[in-house]
Fold:
Amino acid sequence: MEKNIIEVSHVAKRYGEIAAVEDANLSIRRGEIFSLIGHNGAGKSTLFKMMLGLLQPDRGSIRIRGKKIAGSEFRQIRRHIGYLPENVVFYDHLSGLETLRFLGALKGADLNECMPLLRQAGLERAAHRPVRGYSKGMRQRLGFAQALLGDPELLFLDEPTTGLDPAGIREFYSFLQQLRERNVTIILSSHNLAQIQDHVDRIALMKLGNIVTTGSVQQLREQLDLPLEFQVTLQSEGKSRLRDTLSTFPDSEVRFSNATAHIRCNRKQKMALLTTLTSLPGVDDITIQEPSLEDLFLGYVPPPRPVGQPPGRC
Amino acid sequence: MAMCPLLAQWGNLRDGADMSLELKQIGVIAQKEFWDRIRNRWVVAVTAIFIFFALVIAYFGASQQGVVGFSSIELTIASLVSLAIYLVPLIALILGYDAIVGERERGSLDLILALPVTRLELLLGKYIGLSAALTFSTVAGFGLVGLFLSYQINLESLTRYAGFMFSTVLMGMAFLSLSLLISVFANNKTIASGTAIALWFFYVLIYDLILLGILVVTEGQLGGDLFPYLLLLNPADIFRILNIFSLEQVKTLYGLATVFPEALANPWLLSTAMLFWVVAPLGLAYWKFK
Structure:
């Protein structure tokens, strides 16, 4: 069995004058949770649609399980792909169960699995109600249930937690982990970086139609080398001692708020600073905060400068 | 899984789109489209419209001449032809204009096309399902009236009535095919509905007037010989000719019969021309949709 389930090679797609995807290269491993992140218009949706075979690339190739995403061979592969589009829309007059039966019949899935899937999605009691009466969250759950039809080995989820309440979001990610344990490959696109950072194995960061970088959150942290933040809870006499100690760490910056010191320092100094702080009298507690995925994202893809602001250090 | 081997082979030869055809996929989509029209009472409403108008025409069609009641099957069919020419194309165009553009605008098209369904299967499934709904309404509506009249007419007249129903179905399918073409080409539902109505105006109200106008203005110098062939470019005219030429009693009432050559009035030829109007727009729609 090949290690990579998806291979994207030099893929480009233009809409008239606009290059939606310029030159994308990507390998997605079997059984991983992979996320595509980027600003609006970065090319995520276009790449998503090309991987699903909904759009043909102008250049380059995409292979799923080693097969091209065109022709009759891809039809067989599609039976094992689940897709939850962003803002999923169903036929309002059909009930949840009828919706799954219709989509399941087209997918060649066992229709007996429709009711268990609805149960799993928490929609058992609404199974026979027309979808028009479903809330946004219920529609999203139904969308996720339909993506699971036919026991897929590859799932494409576009903004999957839109409309879900906090309990639903937790439930969703816990189920995603279960799927990963069953070797299901999950590709998700989301703007909610805080939500996904603890749940994905690897990330591809897109900017203006290009993949800027790929790797695990930790790898991206190391690549970008953003400063860490130490949060140190101090006793009353600790403040001046800490200032004196930090003078030996020239790259560090400190800011105080009440009894807490927020120290930003270089990743390379992490262990040395930690050792120093733990031996410093007057320190009650130490928390180390790694840069969040949002910090990484903004590090790789800085927001556009306001008009009139000169280039330079922020 | 039923698959056309030739089409499958063609699919393998091509590098691009999947050209293979799975009948099961077409069936699933067609079934949904048909049952949707049953559930939302579209079929019942259209059947009721056909029954109502057909009965009114059958019994009051000759009231201008001071006669009320069923007169003859030929005159009844002639009146029903006039009714069907206005009603059936309009119903067919309204039925199909949003079949594809509606799915695209709603956002459900991507969901369907991400499944193992080709665009051709989707288009054919939609067309067959909608055709089935239209055919069901037409046959039920006009059929019930035919049944009602059957005690007053003989077998030959009944066959003519069946021929009228068959040609009505064909005309409906031709306009449905045109409506799917509109649905594929239109960017949104508003444009699609406007184009559908414009097409109805053009084919049902304007086309013949333009042809006749040209003939009258040029005193038959321009397009005189072409005229019968130009009529074949309008499915509503094919339907009219198909029915008029089979009815001796009413043939002379229509000026059309005098300019249309007997040889071209062959029912098989006209039915083939109508079939062309079913297949050609659908083929063009697929080409664009692909």
User: Anything to note?
Assistant: The mean pLDDT of chain A is 88. Chain A is about 30% helix and 30% strand.
